[in-house]
Input
Amino acid sequence: MQDPHIWQTALTYLRGVGPRRAEILKEELHLHSYADLVEYFPRRYLDYGQITPILQARVDQDAVFRGKLGPFQIRPIAGGKRALLATTLYDGQAGIELVWYQGWEWVRQRFSAGQEVLVIGRPTSQKRRLHIPHPEVIPLGGEPQQIHKFLRVYPVYPLTEKVRQAGLDDKRFRMLFDELYRLTHFEREDPIPETLRDRYGLLPLTESLRAIHLPTHLEEVEKARYRFKFQEFFLLQVLLIKRKYFLKSQYTAPGFVQVGPLVKEFYEKHLPFPLTEAQKRVIREIRRDMAMNAPMNRLIQGDVGSGKTIVALFAALIAIGNGYQVALMAPTEVLAEQHARSFRKWLAPMGLGVGLLLGSTPPSQKKRLMSQLATGELACIIGTHALFQKPVVYHRLGLTIIDEQHKFGVRQRAALWEKAHPYRPHNLLLTATPIPRTLALSVYGDVDVSIIDELPPGRQPIKTWVRTESHRREVWNLLRAELEKGRQAYIIYPLVEESEKLDLKAVEEGYELIRRAFPDYPAGMIHGRMSSERKEREMQLFKLGHTRILVGTTVVEVGVDVPNATVLVVEHADRFGLSQLHQLRGRVGRGEHASYAIFMAPDTLSENALERLRALAQYQDGFRISEIDLRLRGPGDFLGTKQSGLPEFKMADLIEDQAILRQARLAAEELVAQDPSLQQYPALQAYLNEYASKYSLELFTA
Ligand code: ADP
Ligand code: MG
Output
């Protein structure tokens, strides 16, 4: 094997590049070194065996044509200062013009009219006539001079116009790989250990690189692509699983070997309803985690209304029953109050108090709560960001529960966890935003995930309509009928960050419209520009039934429980993601009454876009909807910039390649379990270091 440092060589030293092109490769494609180039993968392949009839040539579609060259012509351009070379390729049915604007002397020398050739190129159109600028022409039966000339399959790399203009067109760019291969034979240390390659049927790295860049047939390209997809998933998974191991081995948590007396008492005497099977399963998972001396880091994903709160209560009962404290943190005061109400109702019969600590709690009360926490007199505290502020000291914090965990930053979650110093508390994270399982493996790979995939019995499905503007009257009639029955309604407007002002206007106008259309029913308004006190007050007025219609943006929080609200109208539903609409739908259907979710769209909306919305009418299951949403929008948009700590995959596709992801996860788990520090795998370590620095992954746990 040659000196591995050769891979750090700057591209300017590669024959065919030079300083000017090196600069352009850097700027346009972010390629600096030999290593970067060899990892720059083709976008697709042209199969030589696959000849396109000239009649089927299309603008901007690379293709291989086969035919006979016509006579060559030289035509003056640029006012006679220069000249182009043109000829026509005929395949017996049609002809297409081939044009060279410069550097064509060699073409003229090498080819002549009547010669049988293959032509590879990308047709463009000028004055509605197709021609191929600077095609690659390969004489049939001629002397092969480059490795590529032996091949049947041509890689096509994603190049930019600037790169092409600098003289690195498809052909010359491909030739860089001939040269690189001559120098290195693509010999690199393989990050995937041989044992795993054997088990999972993966080609070695060197062979894969050769197959990707210098393929002889498409089957080997497929095998190499499989290997690289696997590698991309594998590297990320090893990183995440290593991290999970690190968290478990680095910190100690109190192990609650006994479940404690409170769980039994609650379960036998005070359980308000039979638990669903899913709830029981998740409680068992939590119970197992909390028996360990390593901190639990478990995320519970469950649709709105799936009953996460009582699952969290069981976790709390384990900790309190073992003499430790519990802190439950929610992103808003309304949600914190709601949780406090549930917990108080459930815990009061057992003589357990629940503290509520909010930003707005009066100082004297805050002081009392804080002293009760410090002495251990208070076992259960519920609150907002106030819970992790500096002056708050816990006596023995054994469990933290974080609701709507994605509303908190990594540091905020960590600040709460540090309150248990010198050990770590067990951590339970809750989210009502289900994401598809395989995506969860990548986003939440360093925590354990539990899923509540069952709703409590007797829940009525929410009647879901997709309606266009011309059906407004029908929608208002339904709304009026519900209001007359004493029910309440939400009207939601989209919020797009770039045009906050416009959105505000839309909400305000919507509010006026509603007041005029329904003068007999008090309406409230809520949006992001209001102070948090104003927002809280508007929410309270609605909860208490003083306002009957609430017009607002999506600040109407996830998890807010107003059982009397039975109608949700979402304006411009086409501007929301499906998962978000599903979340919003969870605002209704929380009581005994039949509920309606109505998604409004402009009359001009395309049939496709309407079809997308209709998926909501078809499915009530958040996981199902999130999968559809992911397919439609792709992982980046789906997760949003905020939540996505996801690296970009070059080859792998989180949607199409889920089976490979599962395999890679398995392989990574085996490897890390067998050698958590990866000491036996220096090549893998080197790759991981590079990978981690390249993507500066924001890991889920801090
Ligand atoms: P979420 O998962 O959205 O936080 P909650 O915990 O607020 O859901 O539960 C939604 C409602 O369902 C609550 O009123 C809760 O008391 C009730 N609930 C939860 N589990 C069950 C169950 N197993 N049977 C009946 N009702 C349940
Ligand atoms: Mg909840």
